[in-house]
Amino acid sequence: MVHRFIGPGVAVLVAWGLAAQPSPARAFCRTTTCARLNPPAECLQDANGCWTAGIPLFWEQQCVSIAVDARGSVGLGLDYAAAESVTVAAFGLWLANMCADGFPSIAVMNRGPLVCEELEYNRTGPNANGVLFRDDNWTHEQSAIALTTVAFNRLTGQILDVDMEINTPLVGAGAALEWIIGHEAGHFLGLDHSSDPTALMYYMHSLADTRTAALQADDQAAICAAYPPTRIVPVCDFEPAKGFAADCGGNVRGGGCAVAGHRPDSDRVLVALPAAFLLIAAVTFGWRARRRRDVCSTRRSL
Predict the structure, then answer these.
(1) Are 271 and 54 in contact (CB under 8 A)?
(2) 155-203: pLDDT as tens digits
(3) Is 232 exposed, middle or buried (CB count within 10 Å of its CB: 0-12, 13-18, 19+)?
(4) 3-state per-residue secondary structure call for 1-25
(5) What's the pLDDT score for residue 279?
(6) Is 163 helix (H, G, I), strand (E, B) or coil?
(7) What distances in angstroms separate CA 39 from CA 9, 35, 291, one per listed residue?
């Protein structure tokens, strides 16, 4: 693991996951508030790499949005529609999982296309949770297939913003891409790496693996524990002016959503559920830290 700072008051943990040897199978791990620079003394990891302290990271709201890169990926031969399609399928792996008492109590939808190509979290909002395809400007560890940066409140564990980057020169199309985005979607939801080699959240992946992306028992247990099903179906209002911007810097032109030609009724829910479970997401990202040092970020990669 490599630790560094990327900005004032923002701690970053980078976990590079391309290791040569597998570890013994184990239960899933949750990312916690310990995943930051200079964690407190009580922040230890067990033999399996799971944090033994800290507050697990989570989305407080049950309706969360993402924004897919408007450019798609020339390197992978994906236009925006194709990039959106594979992203939708990858997130759907988690959202369509049936727990013992129903579906996980979180919904995610695409609000793209995303114009901004930068990693950013605007403390005063609005924001976008970006899915970015890096064809020619990968600035991280070259052996990393993908990397997800999560901004969170270190006092509560609340996830505030997530940006996902795909190192497309290392990636092939088809099942491999869906697997990779699905793995990063687990980090998006607050899950950490698993050392169970059958799990989607296993910390390494062979690009020659042609298996269809799917959750395994360890992954299913993880998402159900992180977002237990609820009998109360949340009502999510679509309010584009409150918390979403596709431009860098949280630019919302004219007080509205900064996505040219984007209509609310064209938003696509990322998983087909029974009618009672279809949730329209409108996330308000204007959270302000009570103290500047309360906002941290962690990075997880495959």
Answers:
(1) no
(2) 999 999 999 999 999 887 777 899 999 999 999 999 999 989 899 999 8
(3) exposed
(4) CEEEEEECCEEEEEECCCCCCCCCC
(5) 24
(6) strand
(7) 14, 7, 18
